[in-house]
Design a protein that fits this description.
By secondary structure, this protein is an alpha+beta fold. The protein has two domains: 72 residues, no CATH class; 126 residues, Transposase Inhibitor Protein From Tn5, Chain A, domain 1. Helix 2 crosses helix 3. It is globular, with a radius of gyration of 19 Å. The C terminus is likely disordered.
């Protein structure tokens, strides 16, 4: 058995365990899809479905594998379910002296002209308006930043169906995180953290906690 084969076997086993945890709220076909996508991205170092499909080496035409992946990705938004599992897993590792950092941001897609719901964003790095998506992300970190625990990540667009507002996106993030970790941690938010609704939302979320 070659070293490369051993490495691939170990990687597949680790990804299978991880994907099984974060996808447990989905149907079996969707669980399989998440496992295949994670493996394909790691193996191909790419996010294009054609390259992901190649890594799966199915006994059928490549286009059929690509079509299957595309169909399964098209009908369900995995964001909420996966974020809920990530926060649940992380909650037991978050301590009182950790910083819970919520960071609204953006990702610019200079060459993604035909990407779904691509929208106008303000590129925070280049300080200009461009095409891309807004981000809402959160991590827990100790004071010395030796440990960083992912809590939440979502890319969204104001052009998407069902979009309400940036405040609504932040509210969903806050509710999900503090619904799991309770009052633990030192709460911090970047860019826009002085909005009045955020302090009100935080107080409201804490009052909903059992025993508070």
């Amino acid at each position: 058995m070659s070293q490369e084969f051993k490495t691939v076997t170990i990687l597949k086993a680790q990804l299978s365990r991880f994907s099984g945890i974060i996808s447990r709220g989905f149907s079996k076909p969707k669980q399989r899809l998440i496992k295949e996508i994670l493996y394909g991205i790691q193996a191909s170092k790419d996010i294009k479905l054609s390259n992901i499909a190649r890594t799966l080496k199915e006994d059928q035409a490549l286009i059929k594998t690509e079509d299957r992946l595309s169909r399964n990705l098209d009908d369900v938004d995995f964001t909420e379910g996966i974020n809920a599992e990530v926060v649940r897993l992380a909650s037991s590792r978050v301590s009182d002296d950790m910083v819970i950092a919520i960071d609204p941001g953006d990702i610019r897609k200079k060459y993604g002209k035909k990407m779904e719901y691509i929208a106008k964003i303000r590129d925070g790095s280049e300080k200009e308006i461009g095409e891309g998506y807004w981000l809402c992300k959160a991590v827990a970190s100790d004071i010395e930043q030796k440990k960083v625990i992912p809590l939440y990540f979502e890319a969204y667009s104001q052009e998407a169906q069902g979009f309400k507002s940036e405040n609504d996106q932040l509210s969903r993030c806050i509710d999900l995180i503090f619904g799991q970790i309770g009052n633990r941690g030192i709460h911090a938010i970047d860019r826009g953290g002085d909005r009045g609704f955020l302090s009100i939302r935080s107080i409201w979320a804490k009052r909903r906690l059992p025993g508070s």
